[in-house]
Request: fold
Amino acid sequence: MPFSVSWTGEHTDISQLYVRTDHKGVPGLAYRDERPEDRDRHGVLWARMTWAPGSGKPRFADMHPLRQRDAMLLKLCQVCGKPADRTREGWLFLEARGEHMANLPDPSAPYQGCTSKPPVCSGCAQLAARMCPHLGDPVAFRSRKPLLWGAFGGVYIPNRVGRLIPRAQDDHLPYGRTNATRWFLANQLITELTKCTPVTL
Reply:
């Protein structure tokens, strides 16, 4: 059962989303019944999704916001949810071949870039390489130093009557852009992978 993906029986819930003005008079997104886990340590608000893994069918193209964030932060396997594989060369990651490799002059050169896909354990890496329709012919590599880069999600802007209108396209938010954070609703954590070494499964 894929750990970090969402299922057809789960749905996003933004019914409590509204515009709140903070103690400095600055407006921004908030939940009316906001809980500590709704924001990360950078102050970014996260989309809520019901929790029902295994309900219906897995949506391989969509991550569950909380499970994906936990997998990234705690270095859990995106497939089984157990600790990801780590050696002296770093944590094990899989990417679709060509997705981030196109700009590298040498395909065997160390990978470096950003990803929203959490790491994997060695057993699940082989399973995912065979079964995941979105990986195709994947490339495997280890990162000794994965760094939190930011988040992926949607931007909501209030119209003249205060109704929140989402932008047509989702976007990336590097951590540290305080002004943009106010209107951003995250659904995936982005990690920058550095000090990478290609490996074979």
